[in-house]
Amino acid sequence: APTERTPPPVRPRPAASEATKARRKRRLDEFAWALGPEPAATEPPAPVAPAEPEPGPESQPEDPLDWLTEADASIPLDPPTPSGRSRAQSAPAASALPPALEAILPSSDTTSSDVIAPEVLADAPELLTPSRRSFAAPSQRSARLQRQGDELQLLSWMDECADGEDEPDFAPGGARRRATFSIPEALLEPLHTYALRWYRNPDRRDLPGELRAGEEAISVRGGYAPGDRSWRYRQPVLCIGRPEVPTLEAVYRPEPQQLSLEEVEAWLLSEGRLEEEEVTRRRRTRALRERSYTLRAEGDPEAAAACLQEALELVPDDLASRTALAHLYRKEFADPETAFALYGEVLEQQPDFVPALLGRAMLLVERDRHRAAEEAVQALALSPDDPDALELAGLVSLRAGRRARARALFLQLFRQDRARGEQALLLLEAERDGEPKWDPMLVIWERRALASGQPLDSVSEALYEERVRAAGRLEQILEDWDGIDARERADRLRCLGPVPSYLFLSALLERHARESDPEVRERIEQLFLDEPTHGAMAIEDAIAFAASEDARLAAVHIAALLRWRDLLPQILRTFGEAQLPREVDAYFGPLLRFSGPEVAMALLAKLERGVEGCLDALLELLAQRPAPAAEQAARALRAVLDTPGALQLEPDDRAALEAAL
Fold first, then answer.
1. Tens of pLDDT along 264-319?
2. First vs last C-alpha separation in the chain
3. For residue 451, what is the enclosing H or E element?
4. 3-class DSSP state for residue 26?
5. How many CB atoms lie within 10 A of CB 483?
């Protein structure tokens, strides 16, 4: 069932320091060419001095692109107009744009230093999903496409709060949108085509990962924003960036510009690639589809089906709406023939659409259970982290008689979503006598059997009672945790010995995050070291799925402390997704403990986005030489710095790295 997402409260913005104000002014001066028309003056200028004459042919303004790389700066650009602004900057204000675009782009009196509060966006639910209202305003405000002559196109997605030094909870996303990269004219038409195909079907998998014209190339792909993993609620993003730079030690992956569906929509509208009528239809379709999920959860499948049918009348090729309608016919209306036909229509358009593949497998299981089970496994491989797909694949496996496979899938679902996982696991039975328990605290079957009042044989009854008592001892420690002092907490943990319990160790991660006593923290870390299998599983899931950022960072800390390098790729992925300065800062210590070329490449990608602290972390990593991992990191950094056009670093940052190498 859909959950209500409440945007975080708007916190008062602290006053910026003088250094931060100066840094912002310098950046705004550098990027002034990309900010669009100047805002109209609200008050007449004070007559204290004569107006400066407009720059003529013999008095040209300072080149606003002097911060670009040498390769970009050598490309001929649009000459300035008599007012000193380029033709792109003299374009009409947002008020002259189509109405659908006016709703997203700022008006002509909005400058880069304006901040549109999240509560303003709450009045426009048709534009933004609830999970994006807290940070979409700055990114949508600054989305501008700038034309520069016939040889170069520049996309600039900026925020004035890229550093966030004095506002730790303000404007997430600023760091990842600061840099600007060039798109050659030869690649602009393929990019338009790609973006339009992606916008019309963000779930398609057959789009290329790179656009190339001669020696020019950009990396482009579809993805999903961190958060919801269900195919029904996840937020698609279009990622555009420079291609990867391989080195002998590691691969440098620049952080791409992540454009939301709304941002791509605004861009394509401004370029005349979309009509307002199509935008209106697709927005209405998305709203109807989300409404259908709510109606189905409220127990009104007929109204949900009506919403989906109306959505399909507006956009017949909407795969998600057609698949959701097929699910209704399969589950709610018990009409397998209609459901099978709808699944077939979806798969005819996109043969690898996972929800439709799994839904059809559920219908096939009665006819050919082996084929259905194999199709379910193959479909799940395309979307392994989708809880809906895990649940459906487990049900297919269960109906096909593959109970061990079903148990494994339901346990994987349980690791992501405890409530749904428990309901799915209750379709199975408890482990038999002599079989190892997956987790001593997972005794849902035993408790249900003992509470049912149904007679049990003496062996099963004694076994179930012992398992429930063992789980109760661990649960009691967690229940008493906040009511006992640090010394008693440490003593209880010391008396436990190794605890092969994924659930217990997962619960300890949250307590480790808020524990101030060093002895207790050390005892928790020792429990993870004593049980590496369950401990690594708990840490892996906390990094990927934890609702609490504190629990995720505690998991990262323990993984680095224990040098579990198998978890490093996942840690680097979440580090790349981190946006708030306090979150990014929390990763520096664990990453420096891991060291190595992969860490250096991740820090370099953040540095290129202007995230403060990354340069100091890179210099500290290089100071670890002659350690082998640090030497490899230095060679990887040297290779990327020596690759023409691979980086867009500020001169001071590049000079500091060159000096350290």
1. 888 888 888 888 899 999 999 999 999 999 999 899 999 999 999 999 999 999 99
2. 54
3. helix 444-452
4. helix
5. 7
DSSP 508-519: HHHHHHH---HH
Distance CA 207, CA 92 (A): 34
* Pairing between β-strand 216-224 and β-strand 210-213 as defined by DSSP bridges: antiparallel
Count of CB atoms situated within 10 Å of the CB of 239: 15
How much is the average pLDDT of 374-398? 85
Cα dihedral: 567, 571, 574, 580 (round 10): 150
d(CA 271, CA 523): 60
Mean pLDDT across 12-35: 47
Q: Go through the chain and tell me how many residues it has.
A: 661
Taking the C-alpha atoms of residue 99 and residue 584, their distance in angstroms, rounded to an integer, is 38
* Encoded amino acid at 496, one letter: L
Alpha-carbon span 356 to 345, nearest angstrom: 9
Q: Which DSSP category does 53 fall into?
A: P
Among the listed residues 40, 52, 38, 156, the one whose alpha carbon sits nearest the alpha carbon of residue 86 = 38
Question: What type of residue is 530?
Answer: D
Rounded distance between C-alpha atoms, residue 184 and residue 217, angstroms: 9
Q: Are strands 180-184 and 152-156 parallel, antiparallel or unpaired?
A: antiparallel
More confident residue, 319 or 120: 319
For 500, the token pair is 């092969």
- Look up the pTM and report it: 0.68
Residue 176 carries which DSSP code? G
Confidence of residue 392 (pLDDT cuts 50, 70, 90): confident
- CB-based contacts of 323, cutoff 8 Å, min separation 6: 342, 343, 346, 353, 355, 356, 359
- Burial label, 16 (beta-carbon count in 10 A; 0-12, 13-18, 19+): middle
- The set of long-range contacts for 505-509, using a CB threshold of 8 Å and a minimum separation of 24, is 505/531, 505/534, 505/535, 505/538, 506/538, 506/541, 506/542, 507/478, 509/538, 509/539, 509/542, 509/546, 509/551, 509/554, 509/555, 509/558
**Phi/psi of residue 157, each to 5°?**
-125, 100
Q: What is the dihedral of CA 588, 590, 594, 598, to 10 degrees?
A: -40
> 329-341 b/e with 16+ CB inside 10 Å = b?
bbeeeeeeeebbe
Asked whether the beta carbons of 567 and 579 are under 8 A apart, the reply is: no
Q: What CA–CA distance (Å, rounded) separates 482 from 518?
A: 16
Helix %, strand %, coil % of the chain (to 5): 55, 5, 40
- What are the sequence ranges of the domains in the chain? 89-270, 275-351, 370-429, 434-566, 595-661
Q: Among 242, 314, 316, 284, which Cα is nearest to 644's?
A: 242
CATH of 275-351, one of 1.20.200.10, 3.40.366.10, 3.40.50.300, 1.25.40.10: 1.25.40.10
Strand partners, 236: 224
Asked if 258 and 239 touch (Cβ cutoff 8 Å), the reply is yes
Q: By the 8 A CB rule, do 360 and 340 touch?
A: yes
Question: What band does 97 get if pLDDT is binned at 50, 70 and 90?
Answer: very low
**Single-letter code of the amino acid located at 274:** L
